[in-house]
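Reading a protein record of the kind used here takes only a little practice. Each token is a code from a learned vocabulary of local backbone shapes. With that in mind, consider the following protein and its fold in token form:
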Amino acid sequence: MAVNLKQLTQHEELLTGGHRACAGCTGSNILRQIMLTAGQNTVVGGATGCMEVVTTIFPYTAWRTSFIHSAFENCAATVSGAETAYRALKKRGDLPREETGRKNFIAFGGDGGTYDIGLQSLSGAMERGHNMVYVCYDNEAYMNTGIQRSSATPLGAFTSTAPAGKVKQGKEQNRKDLTKIMVAHNIPYVAQTTPFHWKDLATKVEKALAVDGPAFLNILMPCPVGWHFDTAIGMQLAKEAVESNFWPLFEVENGVYKINQKPKERSPMENWMKQQGRFKHLFRPGNEAILENIQTYVDEQWEKLLKLEEMTAK
């Protein structure tokens, strides 16, 4: 699939300006890019979280398409229900002719509403095989409710519920690998990407929407509020997350892994982390072992991914 930037820019903006996203928020870029690719004939579900709060402050909405607000835990169930209802009405002939074409069903949730609270409904929707796409915008904590740690928060990161001090130095566990959990559901399409890599993102959205069945996209969302960085460098941090192998760009089509970008020279994790206040404490004397553990973990996960690509290659 060839994605043309000029053509994308001519598509209708389905997320309007004037929403309440924070300065430097990369989440609004994610939503805009996805909707430019998906188009008007789309039903959107949004779990409670940053992107729902900033785009649907009652009685206003930034969405120029159908939008359903769900609780943290049930966005995937809600959208799977809408998709089922559409298929049933279409089968019975109860839809107007103009509504009988292909319709996209997309669920959006943050890492809190996806990795944690909403994992059960996400798993159920994927296992049942609904023709829908679930998009996780992963900013690696519960940013909407006070920057509490989630299972997506990386080792060593400072949050309000995993603070750094004399006793502990941020989160003590590595992040959950949700992307591979979704692969284990044996669904047609799973992928990781970032808003910086616009062509990769748009291509993966097209692929996800085209498959017959469920698809899952995990998109890194640098957050200036929770990550504590200058509002101008969000996209740069998304780029460097890939160059350090912290957030590899890859896709899994029908069980076959493909890495979409392999850095020619891996950037050390320290270079990426030093730009974020949530890791500032790790660069004090005495925390060298934590930094080493973080780098080792990232390197090990990258080697596993390379092996999975080799093992599943056709």
